[in-house]
Amino acid sequence: MFMHLVWLNVKARLQYGRSFVYEILTSMVGYIFEFLAVWIIINQFNSIIGWSFFEILFLHALGYFVRATASAFLWRPMWLMSDYMQRGQLDKFLLSPVNSFMYIVGSNFMTYALSHVILGGMVAIISIFFIPIDWTLLKALLFICSLIGAMFIYGGFIVFSGAISFWTVRSSFLLRVLTEAWSVINYPITIYPRGIQILLTFFIPFALLNYYPTVYLFRQPGNSNSWTMILILAAGLSFFTLVYKLWWYGVRKYQGAGS
Amino acid sequence: MEVIKVENLKKVYRIPKRREGFLNTFKDLIKHEYEDKTALADISFSINEGDIVGYIGPNGAGKSTTIKIMAGILYPTSGQVTVNEVIPYKEKVRNAKEISLIAGNRSNLYWDLPIIDTFELMKRIYKISDKKYKQNLDLLSEVIGIKDLHTVPARQLSLGQRMRADFVASMLHDPKIVYLDEPTIGLDIVAKDHIREFIKTVNSEKRTTVIITSHDIADIERICNRVIVIDYGKIIYSGNIDNLNSEYNNNKCIMKIKLEDKAESFNLEGFDVKQVNDMYSISFERKKITPSGMLNLLLEKGYKIIDFSLTEPSLEDTIKAIYEK
């Protein structure tokens, strides 16, 4: 049912076929300029603390990829939570015999984010060809695991900001922080002072999205190894579960209060 | 057979108090003071299978609160509610499969997609078998009149068509109980008629229990067999619709007659007669004499009536009187 809902959203978006294509084109243009900026910077400085152009490009693209995948599913439903509550539209979801969370999430799939997912993915894959990596099956598997964990971490933050709208009505502030402040990870976090690195690793763990998995892949020896990958997956799953439970707690409180 | 049972239902809302004054606004930010608002005081009623119940009351009386609790989306403060032998807010999924909530001002349809897509979504959500889905889809579309509109996106439909599509979408899973919240709001006369006929047909064919909240008295009059009136969170009346008027002493009929011989002065002993242009208006209590009795009386007295009209006690007047108390 969930995938069917997602598909319905994509189908609806495709109804406006031409504007969908324009959206993708404009994102692509935006991307090209961003990468151009990176290229210029690297050209000037030859490399950024030892990271070559394609390595930075990969880091960049991976960040987009992870973030966009999580956002595609979760951004819009969580953004709409306070709206739904104020307009009494939450009832339709609570009334159905299916998991209300899944219903809300599936009904609000953001097709627009797919353009970021595809572009980010493509750029990442292309960059990989230019980077010497020692591939092993284990490495690839662990890398993918950490990506999944990272998606759940970022997604968890999105759901968290949606969940707190049960207690405070306007929660868009946190969401905006998430969508705009994450670009700090576009460069390896080792360029920042130690304090910021710790912040980005443990407190606002954006670095887990792209830096650590990337280091694991081809920047060894660095501050990331196979255990880090598993840790990221574990952290992601448990964090998301916690936030998920928080969301449901909010729902039950809402059902006690009513309006 | 009882299908809904509500006993001593009570619902109290805790509303943050908003205090007047500059300093108090800040105090409110830090720590809210709450006040209790009783939406439902002590409600009890039961509804039988196949009933079409008009659940009416002035705005703010507690209708939506009751419906939400029966639907399972709201938790009561105390009291018992059983719907189809299930406690709705405790077994949400089981309850959801047997009910349907249709609100006149909210649509369940996907705006940009053909309505058939919404129907198929409902099929998946309620896990309707292929056979039953096709059966219900054909039957419902036929009865309500949207058979040719399946491929039209919701945004291209008129309000009346959208309401009808909403009805079909909400009844594909054969709900035993349907809650209707202002189902005919904003619809033209013909559309209203169609919807009312549809409800009656479904009710008679499938024994669907219908609970309807409407401010349109004609809705209630035409299709309900029972009425429950709620005000200030308390049930004021619960019973057959026919008895409602007499219960509230609203028995006054008005018969207007035109006599062949206009010169005659017209007087009727024991009844209040007024002259309005060239017609006489007679007020009488239904309890004292029925309209047909009145006609017979006039004919017996030898009056030659060439035109007459009859106004029965109106439900609207009764309800107005109840609301104004």
UniProtKB/TrEMBL annotation, chain A:
The chain crosses the membrane at residues 20-42, 48-70, 112-133, 140-167, 196-218, 230-249. Pfam families: ABC2_membrane_6. It comes from the Bacteria. Keywords: Membrane, Transmembrane, Transmembrane helix. InterPro entries: ABC-2_transporter-like (IPR010390). PANTHER family: INTEGRAL MEMBRANE TRANSPORT PROTEIN (PTHR36833:SF1), SLR0610 PROTEIN-RELATED (PTHR36833). This is ABC-2 family transporter protein. It comes from Lutispora saccharofermentans.
UniProtKB/TrEMBL annotation, chain B:
Residues 24-257 form the ABC transporter domain. GO terms for molecular function: ATP binding. Keywords: ATP-binding, Nucleotide-binding, Transport. PROSITE patterns: ABC_TRANSPORTER_1, ABC_TRANSPORTER_2. InterPro entries: AAA+_ATPase, ABC_transporter-like_ATP-bd, ABC_transporter-like_CS, ABC_transporter_ATP-binding, P-loop_NTPase. Gene3D superfamilies: P-loop containing nucleotide triphosphate hydrolases (3.40.50.300). This is ATP-binding cassette domain-containing protein.
